[in-house]
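Hey, can you fold this?
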Amino acid sequence: MKDRKNKSPPRCTPGQWRIERYSDFYKITDEQGVTIADIPVQPLDPPEWAEGNAHIITAALKLLIALEDAFALLDRITDTLHYEDGLPVTFLEARDIEIIYGDAVTELARLETLIREARGQQ
């Protein structure tokens, strides 16, 4: 896991969460099989809504961590692109551009994967 300084740990069940499908509900469990949440299939709602809700809940912790990491990345990019007095940088070394680009591409790929997971499109 990336450096988590200045961030308190999430106040939720840690680890990988799983979805179990039953006839009239979805169960979200932790790595030990302990129930985190039950998502009922409501009779008047389309059945895919319950499944979609289960996928979003299952991805919530990873999405939170990814959002915090993306925020930290944007903060680093902002620091690189501004002088100490807040004025924009008018020249960057090629290495700085490579670092910013590499970090952004890596984070974009990770976020795309998490979005697909939250949508149940793995």
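Oh, and this one too while you're at it.
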Amino acid sequence: MKKTTRNSFHIILFFPHYRCCPLCYRKFEKESEGEQLIRDMELQIKGPDYRRKIDRDLTLLQEKFEKCLNLKPIHSQLQDLEDKDIPLLKTQMKQLDKEIVQLKNKQTDIEQELNDKICLPLEQCEQIKTDIIMLNKYINERKDFQSKINICQQKLGK
């Protein structure tokens, strides 16, 4: 298509009787001026290839625009999260951290109390353990002596 357009310009510009501009009828002194005019006109008159390129570019831009429109709800959700939910969650986390610290302190206190309740009797048991062992030994010796005394009394009483 471009070739035929160029040829038709060329024919109009350089037909033997018409050595002038077809629009303003200005005469050309050199043939190069006519060639330059043809190039300029061809640049200004864009063919179907240019239209297809423009249509493709327009389609790409429309797709980008639609993607941006699709991102708008996501952006608003992000904004909501940043403005409302995240600060709320941060305050809840701080409260939970305080609660955890309180519970840990309470746990430590309870452990200490239990330790005191359990360790005191254990210490007392350890202290009287040797006494109990000695008491058992003396009780056994007493039984032995009692049985020996009974045996001796039986021998004497006969």
